């Protein structure tokens, strides 16, 4: 569980090196207000592996005897790059080595949190976005270190994410926490680093299948390509049918399938190198682990993929799946671009999608429930979806005097993906 270690020189040097590396890459920049573009069934967003709690100091939680550690985690982006995150799920264990995915607030514990925008304000106006010297001027707090500034920021975030009365052990840091809580105002949710929506469409050979909408915060736009293995002649085009290799935020793109192409499917890919916006949520895709919120990003490589399928006759299915935290389950959108009905089974229920029909199906799940299911159809259609429903912060347990503490800890990841380990902090 979280133990408090000394504030050694080596740790300070490591903290300074990590943050300066992100600053040098232009990562610690303010995320201005933007409309979220996480449409249901979108693919994309950064994926990263959770590392250690890197920059931290002691925090006391009201009603608990034990001193906790609060601060910044480091994460390594799958395709290159690094991230710094704070925790927004205090009572859940953080498992080092777990795989995480960038999601919109609607797919995380922030979906029903009226103070989510205040958390983003804290990220924009505290460490590491602002250096300790800048915080001295802005907040009027002197004598902070990287570690105590991180602990103060985490304590303020826990106030809004987990309704905790949290105070840094360091008295100077307590003043920063109070300043952040007292001055926080709501800021709009940031855009996705990259998305393709929907993640799956179907049609017929000779058609332009689409549109797929591109969403990205990268000013240079996204690079587009067809994943190797697609039939000859298949390409990505704009609404006028012109072949394209790049797309900007908000652009619609299509996949041109030449007439006479044998029945089949293919993947397209969008890719950007960008800084993931402050305030993006990161949730575990390998079982229960603390939900994180982004505090800083180096230039990171992010990809999004979408599938297209086509056939001359019969049913031509497409399926997208997204978490629906508001409804407590999964939102499955099934469509049929063919000329015959398509029937499939899902969790013991049979569904039929008529030609040219699109149907939305909500599958209820319990909080923290792991899921894995496969939807099949004609022409060897098969899509498997796997994950865990993680939509709430863990609720308080009995008083600390009655049972062991429910505080979070950093533990090695369980060896079996999709299973949860101990979330009690032991």
From TrEMBL:
Family matches, as InterPro entries: PLipase_C_C, Thioester_dom, TQXA_dom
Keyword field: Signal
Record flagged with keyword Oxidoreductase: no
Position of the signal peptide: 1-36
Segments of this protein annotated with the region Disordered: 389-426
Organism: Streptomyces viridochromogenes
Ranges for domain Bacterial phospholipase C C-terminal: 317-387
Name of the molecule in the record: Peptidase
Record flagged with keyword Ubl conjugation: no
Boundaries of every Thioester domain copy: 85-185
């Amino acid at each position: 569980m979280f133990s408090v270690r000394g504030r050694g020189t080596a740790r300070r040097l490591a903290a300074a090196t990590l943050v300066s590396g992100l600053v040098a890459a232009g990562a610690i920049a303010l995320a201005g207000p933007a409309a979220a573009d996480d449409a249901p069934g979108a693919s994309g967003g950064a994926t990263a592996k959770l590392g250690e709690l890197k920059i931290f100091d002691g925090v006391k939680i009201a009603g608990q005897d034990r001193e906790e550690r609060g601060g910044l985690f480091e994460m390594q982006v799958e395709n290159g790059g690094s991230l710094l995150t704070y925790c927004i799920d205090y009572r859940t264990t953080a498992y080092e080595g777990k795989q995480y995915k960038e999601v919109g607030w609607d797919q995380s514990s922030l979906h029903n949190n009226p103070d989510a925008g205040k958390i983003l304000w804290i990220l924009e106006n505290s460490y590491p976005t602002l250096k300790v010297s800048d915080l001295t001027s802005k907040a009027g707090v002197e004598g902070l270190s990287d570690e105590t500034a991180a602990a103060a920021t985490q304590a303020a975030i826990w106030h809004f994410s987990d309704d905790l009365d949290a105070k840094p052990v360091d008295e100077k840091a307590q003043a920063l926490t109070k300043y952040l809580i007292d001055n926080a105002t709501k800021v709009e949710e940031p855009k996705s680093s990259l998305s393709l929506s929907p993640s799956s469409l179907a049609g017929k050979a000779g058609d332009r299948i689409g549109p797929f909408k591109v969403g990205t915060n990268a000013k240079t736009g996204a690079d587009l390509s067809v994943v190797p293995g697609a039939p000859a002649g298949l390409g990505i085009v704009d609404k006028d049918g012109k072949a394209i290799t790049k797309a900007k935020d908000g652009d619609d793109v299509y996949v041109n399938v030449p007439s006479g192409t044998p029945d089949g499917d293919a993947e397209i890919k969008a890719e950007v190198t960008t800084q993931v916006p402050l305030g993006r949520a990161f949730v575990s895709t390998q079982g229960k682990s603390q939900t994180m919120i982004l505090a800083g990003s180096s230039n990171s490589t992010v990809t999004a993929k979408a599938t297209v399928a086509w056939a001359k006759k019969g049913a031509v299915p497409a399926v997208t799946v997204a978490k629906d935290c508001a409804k407590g389950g999964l939102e499955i959108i099934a469509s049929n671009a063919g000329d015959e009905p398509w029937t499939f089974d899902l969790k013991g229920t049979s569904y039929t999608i008529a030609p040219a029909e699109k149907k939305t199906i909500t599958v209820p799940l319990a909080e923290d429930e792991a899921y894995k299911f496969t939807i099949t159809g004609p022409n060897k259609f098969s899509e498997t979806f796997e994950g865990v429903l993680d939509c709430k912060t863990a609720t308080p347990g009995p008083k600390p005097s009655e049972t062991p503490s429910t505080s979070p800890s950093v533990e090695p990841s369980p060896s079996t993906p999709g299973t949860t380990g101990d979330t009690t902090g032991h």
